[in-house]
């Protein structure tokens, strides 16, 4: 059974931290292998330090006019994704991640659709996202759902060292 579990700090803090460390560590490793960029050395902080240090501010960014879901399959947390407000008209999809052993079954796509629908229901007219260039499967899903490439937008989380390897996209709702 598939469940979209709304993040609750009192219940899900460790799941949130673990998934975010896993997600960012994956990005760090892929960036190192593909582009020979050592993100932790470049920015002076590890994925774990970043997640733990930004936890309070990051989770608060979803509380007002946004949401963060943990994706649960048969009582196992297998992924995550969030939607946060950028400004009165636009929102951003953040931290879409499905654990590798659960990829290819459409779970990420279901979560993506759920987040877009949530943004529509909140009255946003534009949804934006940022993605690493190596995430080609995700880009296909985004493009097939009407997302177009755009310039980097205010509020994007990209470290300076990886901007050349990032894609920014948006869609009018």
| Gross CATH architecture | 3-Layer(aba) Sandwich
Strand residue percentage? 25-35%
User: What about the largest sheet?
Assistant: 7 strands, mixed
Strand tally, please? 7
The CATH superfamily label reads Gcn5-related N-acetyltransferase (GNAT)
What would CATH call the class?
Alpha Beta
Q: Rough shape?
A: globular
> How do the strands of the widest beta sheet line up side by side?
1-2-3-4-5-7-6
Average pLDDT confidence is: 96
Unreliable stretches: none
Structural class: alpha+beta
What's the tally of helices? 5
State the end-to-end CA separation.
Answer: 29 Å
Q: Tell me the radius of gyration.
A: 15 Å
**CATH fold group:** Aminopeptidase
- Helix-strand sequence: EHHHEEEHEHEE
Work out the count of structural domains: 1
Fraction in helix: 40-55%
What is the gist of this entry?
The protein has about 170 residues and is α+β, with helices and mostly antiparallel strands. Helix content is about 40%, strand content about 25%.
Could you explain the architecture of this structure?
This protein has one domain: 3-Layer(aba) Sandwich (Aminopeptidase). A seven-stranded mixed β-sheet has the order 1-2-3-4-5-7-6, sandwiched between helices. The mean pLDDT is 96. With 173 residues, the protein is of the alpha+beta class. Strand 2 and strand 3 (76-85) form a beta hairpin. 40% of the residues lie in helices and 27% in strands. The chain has helices spanning 9-35, 39-43, 47-60, 107-121, 136-144, and strands spanning 2-6, 67-73, 76-85, 90-98, 126-132, 148-149, 166-172.
């Amino acid at each position: 059974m598939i469940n979209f579990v709304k993040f609750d700090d009192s219940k899900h803090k460790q799941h949130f931290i673990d998934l975010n460390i896993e997600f960012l560590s994956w990005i760090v490793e892929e960036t190192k292998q593909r582009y020979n960029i050592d993100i932790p050395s470049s920015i002076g902080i590890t994925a774990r330090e970043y997640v733990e240090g930004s936890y309070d501010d990051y989770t608060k960014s979803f509380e007002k006019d946004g949401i963060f879901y943990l994706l649960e399959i048969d009582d196992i947390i297998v992924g995550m994704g969030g939607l946060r407000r950028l400004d009165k008209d636009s929102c951003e999809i953040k931290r879409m991640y499905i654990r590798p052993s659960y990829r290819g079954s459409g779970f990420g796509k279901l979560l993506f659709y759920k987040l877009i629908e949530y943004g529509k229901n909140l009255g946003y007219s534009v949804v934006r996202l940022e993605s690493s260039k190596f995430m080609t499967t995700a880009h296909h899903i985004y493009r097939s759902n009407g997302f177009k490439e755009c310039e980097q937008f205010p509020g994007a989380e990209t470290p300076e060292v990886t901007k050349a390897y990032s894609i920014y996209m948006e869609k009018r709702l």
